[in-house]
Design goal:
38% helix; single chain; mainly alpha
């Protein structure tokens, strides 16, 4: 009884057998699968990214869809440059807008008096204000008298570029009130260039389409 009590109840039936090669992962299977995934995943990512991209990436896309639409200029976009409206002399951005102003002159009909250039886009935040501002500065730098009009009556942004009061008298005040004098809305844009003036959108109206269809808008232009 004394010797039987501490006896182990565990018995080895079969000793384990091991080899020099690992059981898993198997090189014969892992390497081909890794190479296959290395080709499939990048191409799948590129395909889905390109298929979901709805933006215009270059002038070739526009000219391919409709060759009759004239493309005046491609404006460079500097991702890390927050001051896209500085119009620094000699910069690539300033030169591109000078080319835009020159090319625009070829399209605008030749006539006596002032010329009206309308800048618009399909949706917001596509660069309408920035393009209009820099284009007006390009014209002003050539010695032409320019009046930049902020006609976005619903979501005005021009005042932010100029450090002007958003509620300054402007286009909406002229369109609503027959007594409003046109000259009261004109302000200096960039004071370094006395040929550059701005006309802000004014107070946000209840119905912008009604005001813009007003006959006073034609008179304003």
């Amino acid at each position: 009884i004394h010797y039987a009590a501490p006896a182990s109840s565990i018995k080895v039936i079969d000793y384990s057998v091991s080899g020099l090669k690992p059981v898993w992962p198997k090189k014969v299977l892992v390497y081909p699968v890794s190479l296959l995934l290395g080709f499939i995943l990048p191409f799948s990512f590129i395909f889905f990214k390109s298929s979901m991209d709805t933006k215009v990436q270059g002038r070739e896309e526009i000219e391919k869809i409709n060759p009759e639409i004239p493309t005046l200029i491609e404006i460079p976009f500097f991702k890390h440059n927050k001051n896209m409206h500085g119009f620094q002399e000699g910069s690539a951005l300033a030169e591109s807008y000078r080319i835009l102003s020159t090319n625009t002159d070829y399209l605008v009909p030749k006539k006596e008096g002032g010329k009206v250039v309308f800048v618009t886009s399909a949706i917001k935040e596509e660069g309408k204000t920035m393009t209009a501002l820099n284009l007006s500065l390009a014209y002003a730098s050539l010695g032409k008298r320019v009046l930049l009009v902020g006609a976005d009556l619903r979501n005005p942004q021009l005042h932010g570029y100029m450090d002007l009061d958003r509620n300054s008298p402007g286009l909406s005040d002229y369109l609503k009130n027959a007594w409003f004098d046109f000259q009261d809305g004109i302000q200096f844009g960039f004071k370094k260039n006395f040929n550059h003036h701005v006309y802000l959108s004014g107070a946000i109206p209840e119905s912008a389409p009604v005001l813009l269809s007003n006959e006073r808008f034609g008179k304003f232009l």
